[in-house]
Amino acid sequence: MLNNERGAAVRPSFSRWLSQTNDITQQFMAMGVDPSFISMAGGLPAAEFYPVAAAAEAADRALSRWGAAALEYGPVDGFMPLRAHIADRMSRMAGRHFDTSNVLLTVGAMQGLDLIGKVLIDEGDRIVTQYPTYVGALDAWRPRQPVYTPLDWGKPGTSVETLRSAKFVYGVPNYSNPTGALVPTPARAALLEKALEADTWLVEDDPYLPLQYDGDAGPSMLALDGAMMPGGPYNGPVIYLGTLSKSIVPGLRVGWVIASPDMIAALTLAKQSTDISSSMLTHAVALELLEADIEKVHVPGMVGHYRERRDALCAAALETLAPWFEWQVPSGGMFVWMKARNSTIDTGVLYARALREKVAYVPGSVFDPAGVDTSSMRINFTRNAPDVLREGARRLAVAAKDAFG
Amino acid sequence: MLNNERGAAVRPSFSRWLSQTNDITQQFMAMGVDPSFISMAGGLPAAEFYPVAAAAEAADRALSRWGAAALEYGPVDGFMPLRAHIADRMSRMAGRHFDTSNVLLTVGAMQGLDLIGKVLIDEGDRIVTQYPTYVGALDAWRPRQPVYTPLDWGKPGTSVETLRSAKFVYGVPNYSNPTGALVPTPARAALLEKALEADTWLVEDDPYLPLQYDGDAGPSMLALDGAMMPGGPYNGPVIYLGTLSKSIVPGLRVGWVIASPDMIAALTLAKQSTDISSSMLTHAVALELLEADIEKVHVPGMVGHYRERRDALCAAALETLAPWFEWQVPSGGMFVWMKARNSTIDTGVLYARALREKVAYVPGSVFDPAGVDTSSMRINFTRNAPDVLREGARRLAVAAKDAFG
């Protein structure tokens, strides 16, 4: 990997985990330079709906209102008025009181995942996680070198014993990444109950909550736990991750963790050693947008467009991809998870052909902690307009026909 | 540490490194709530000089110019126009060409330190670092559990053999944190030569470059290396860290790493797994400020104030603290490093008394990788006005007299 042009001996080797990772997220973030290329890979919102004018007004108000404080190093745990606002928001959502000692502001929900790995994982520690799981979570924890055990949300599901063997349990109950699946309330309640019995941490990653297309998501595990323990400071096992990346814009990089004060204190120590503090400007702008109730104005229209896009993709896929793949229509979120109808269809092989047809998705292998899934793929439907999605499905079918007949 | 109010068994333990860290940076970031308290602890710029109006105009221009692109997930390595601007800036500074493959934008220089630890350190790996060293660097690397060997900049200085035993060498040659020391050019050149011979990485952390009070800082090791290898893509051993936190404002959290493309690629992979991308809004605002040449307008006046503050602190300390401490007047940066005149003076003991007098500094122990320094302290002079610094020195003397007679 190293190439010293002076021709001397090679420099010190990189850390072990780097040889086990991939740059697929980076590739997706850099896609879109060629306008004729259709990327259905990244978990990206549609930029044409971003409230640019509202953000410009919010930046102006934020700097008038807070002045130098918006350009300052902040407290490690975030801009206090925004922490208080998020505490209130989550209290309303979960139906129990959280105060600021339950809140850490993070750089998107992604930094929350990184910090959770930092404070809980030493090499060889166990994480119980849904299979397949969000590639960003696997990326975040790889430098800590954990081992994985699959989470079964079903009945009887993962045993208390198994949960007890883990530093934490990880799941995305609302419109999961990558599968789009919505976990039913009884399964959430059962997992919470077992996590309480096992006395382990329960990480609930909830970025897709605002993107509901067919009815309600149901209560979060944080809310279910809160209902069992409505009084006093929240001290339960749930570590809840939220973000403004899906409901407003990703480029402010504003997310948050809700957890017991001892966990928030540990995560804050880890954040201190990661970036000292987030940008107070982004926190102050986010606060202005939230106080102006931007989500009420912004989300319903955007969700309408996303629903139309989901339907366009699924209808086009029925006409083009059904010979090779099957899928469930997701009731929220950003993704359709397609599984090959038979094992001769390798989505890694298909990927190379798809790139030649100028279309991209994410091969299922990167979501598999065991790395053995060769038969699935994740397709994003929020980023592109219906016509583009239809053309993307057509190109994928050309690639599939070429690869598998 | 854990306290589960349900009274069941304790939850899984935190990662080992957390029991070895401290929250001192966090404390300093949170200080300043009580206006009668004088903190000379944090390495903070003076907020009264922040160019708030220019930042507000820059935010407005950035959103008009880039629209949704300024509110988007960015490429992991940063907003391309700002990367290109930083490549040009560093090319001018170092007198050799860097292109964007040599540049990663980070959340302040601090994230650069975190990422360097992530990509180079496995548990037990060695870092050769200046003693005392920046507490933020020690914080950043603690989760990776390295071991440390002191760097000697002098003659003959650290041996090539010792450098060869390390994953990297770390130093702050310009107005070091915590000592304020300026490393002479021959010593920089000698270290660079040995690092080349040892074929190890050389981390040059350079946040204080803009804060020069008495003459020029001298060439960076990056420039010295560039001069030896002026053509072709930069592929040398220096990993250079820069930031806008000291020259413009810290709250944009814009820093950068300059290094060989293979190192930039590895650091970018690590950033992908840390926060996906930085806030494009902060990058776009920083670009506007830099294109408007804000530093030319802003830095000279600020540096004049800082020089006055340094002089005020040093003069006051001569009158109040000289019975217990001695120090060198720094020619740049943010800190005066005071060493006790005898070993009965413990700056940890003094710290508790100082807090009672409503004044704070940073005890030297947190900068000592070996954790044994009990006789030094770091005093910041940039944050407070001359009168406040004089009062701070007076309070420190009251505390010292009370503690040590």
What's the short story on this structure?
Chains A, B: It comes from Mesorhizobium denitrificans. Chains A, B: This is PLP-dependent aminotransferase family protein. Two copies of one chain form a homodimer. Chain A has helices at 24-30, 52-66, 80-94, 108-120, 135-141, 160-164, 185-198, 221-228, 261-275, 280-291, 294-320, 347-356, 386-404, and strands spanning 38-39, 103-107, 126-130, 147-151, 168-171, 201-205, 238-243, 254-258, 325-326, 335-340, 359-360, 362-363, 376-380.
Radius of gyration of chain A: 22 Å
CATH superfamily of the largest domain in chain A: Type I PLP-dependent aspartate aminotransferase-like (Major domain)
- What is the CATH C-level name of the largest domain in chain A? Alpha Beta
Chain pair with largest interface: A-B, 95 and 95 residues
Mean pLDDT of chain A: 94
H and E string of chain A: HEHHEHEHEHEHEHEEHHHEEHEEEH
Query: Can you name the CATH architecture of the largest domain in chain A?
Result: 3-Layer(aba) Sandwich
Structural class of chain A: alpha/beta
- Poorly predicted regions of chain A: 1-5
Number of domains of chain A: 2
Count of helical segments of chain A? 13
Shape of chain A: globular
The largest sheet of chain A, given as strand count, sense and whether it forms a barrel, is: 7 strands, mixed
The CATH topology annotation of the largest domain in chain A reads as: Aspartate Aminotransferase, domain 2
Share of helix of chain A, binned: 40-55%
Oligomer type? homodimer
User: What's the β-strand tally of chain A?
Assistant: 13
Q: What strand order characterises the main sheet of chain A?
A: 2-8-7-6-5-3-4
Cofactor (chains A, B): pyridoxal 5'-phosphate
GO biological process, one term (chains A, B): alpha-amino acid metabolic process
Keywords (chains A, B): Aminotransferase, Pyridoxal phosphate, Transferase
Protein name (chains A, B): PLP-dependent aminotransferase family protein
